[in-house]
């Protein structure tokens, strides 16, 4: 609380009383802390790959590139880290786009079966690498009014997470069903699951249950923040059922 006070004098300049103004600045302080936190997080996330890129490039330039094996392995690191940076910057731009005051959805009639069909080739490679069995259970002919590209991103992000947080040879199931007013999209995995206590936090920007694991899978820590944002600007909602070691199911409800 911020307090501002001032004395009140009478006409003979004698102290008569005082006024005290009490401002509740909890909310403002919270916003300010969140902003500082975000800037610190972004800076850290950008710095880590850049440090690695400059370090490996410098070592190569100082002579290490004469060894073919070293050259190949260092270039692979430089490529991977640049790729990570690109993903991070894309996610940051998406979030800032979604948060603009004048942000508008490009709504059209979205055919959900066509949309999910387009997603398979995008994530198949990653699923195959891990030997994950993908099951699609998509009701035919469902449509909704929404922003096609944004909805596609929601499904891609949820499926990518389901694959990333699953063991080798795991199982990931996507279902899309018509529920009168809503289209219900769910993504299930039999992966590591999420502790009940942290479920509300996973939608925060840069929150990760296990930083090292998320980093290894190439995650930016922004995927679910983007998902939640997109679902909410469509007036939909999202919920999670999960149990540690027993997998997770993300439910998205989008109004038709
Ligand atoms: P990341 O890039 O780290 O995956 P997200 O915003 O997509 O970022 O997810 C935030 C965190 O939520 C992840 O780091 C992970 O700890 C947890 N998480 C997300 N999806 C799953 C899932 N299907 N199973 C287990 N944990 C998950």
Automatic annotation (TrEMBL):
It comes from the Bacteria. Residues 41-256 form the Histidine kinase domain. Its EC number is 2.7.13.3. Keywords: ATP-binding, Coiled coil, Kinase, Membrane, Nucleotide-binding, Phosphoprotein, Transferase, Transmembrane, Transmembrane helix, Two-component regulatory system. It is an enzyme of class 2 (transferase). It catalyses: ATP + protein L-histidine = ADP + protein N-phospho-L-histidine. It is found in: Membrane. The keyword Coiled coil applies. This is histidine kinase. The chain holds residues 201 to 456 of 456 of the full protein.
């Amino acid at each position: 609380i911020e307090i501002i006070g001032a004395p009140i004098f009478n006409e003979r300049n004698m102290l008569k009383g005082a006024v005290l103004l009490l401002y509740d600045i909890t909310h403002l302080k919270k916003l300010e802390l969140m902003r500082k936190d975000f800037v610190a997080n972004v800076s850290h996330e950008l710095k880590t790959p850049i440090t690695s890129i400059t370090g490996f490039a410098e070592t190569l330039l100082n002579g290490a590139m004469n060894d073919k094996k070293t050259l190949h392995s260092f270039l692979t690191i430089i490529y991977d880290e640049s790729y990570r940076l690109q993903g991070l910057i894309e996610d940051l731009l998406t979030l800032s786009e979604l948060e603009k005051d004048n942000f508008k959805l490009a709504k059209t009639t979205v055919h959900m079966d066509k949309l999910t069909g387009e997603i398979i080739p995008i994530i198949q490679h990653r699923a195959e690498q891990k030997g994950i069995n993908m099951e699609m259970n998509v009701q035919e002919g469902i449509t909704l009014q929404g922003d096609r590209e944004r909805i596609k991103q929601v499904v891609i992000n949820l499926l990518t997470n389901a694959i990333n947080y699953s063991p080798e040879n795991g199982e990931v199931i996507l279902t899309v069903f018509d529920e009168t007013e809503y289209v219900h999209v769910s993504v299930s995995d039999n992966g590591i699951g999420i502790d009940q206590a942290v479920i509300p936090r996973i939608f925060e920007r840069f929150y990760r249950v296990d930083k090292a694991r998320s980093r290894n899978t190439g995650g930016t820590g922004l995927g679910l923040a983007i998902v939640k944002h997109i679902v909410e600007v469509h007036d939909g909602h999202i919920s999670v059922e999960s149990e540690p070691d027993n997998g997770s199911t993300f439910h998205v409800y989008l109004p038709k």
